[in-house]
Amino acid sequence: MVNILGIAHGGALFALIDEAFETASNSHGTIAVALNINITFVSSPSPGSRLIAEAQEMNQTPRTALYDIKVSDDQNNLIACCQALVYRKGNPLPFLSEGRE
Predict the structure, then answer these.
(1) Long-range contact list for 74-78, CB < 8 A, 24+ apart?
(2) pLDDT tens track for 43-81
(3) What is the pTM of this model?
(4) Are 92 and 26 a contacting pair, CB within 8 Å?
(5) How many other C-beta atoms are found inside a 10 Å radius of the C-beta of residue 83?
(6) Which residues contact residue 53 at a Cβ distance below 8 angstroms, ignoring those fewer than 6 apart?
(7) Which residues does residue 86 pair with via DSSP β-bridges, in sequence order?
(8) For residues 41 and 11, is the Cβ–Cβ distance under 8 A?
(9) Contact criterion met (CB below 8 Å) for 14 and 51
């Protein structure tokens, strides 16, 4: 997934960040949806490198939570960093209650 310059496409990096954000923010078992995502692209990964996204919850209230998300390559070089805010709807994740009726 490269752009016209032959470097990692920002949209592909965003998709990786969004997956880490989604997994972390919904890990409490209730529906959480994104309110804001701010990404800073720090460097471009080498072609073929493996990228890893890690999300850490920084703050949580009953209705919102703040996450710090970092993308690094397989050499532990920082590729992108992100701050993201989620809204917690309070409803249980639907797939957790399937088959329990």
Answers:
(1) 74/49, 74/50, 75/46, 75/49, 77/43, 77/45, 78/42, 78/43
(2) 999 988 999 999 999 999 999 999 999 999 999 999 999
(3) 0.90
(4) no
(5) 14
(6) 16, 17, 19, 20, 69, 70, 71
(7) 34, 65
(8) no
(9) no
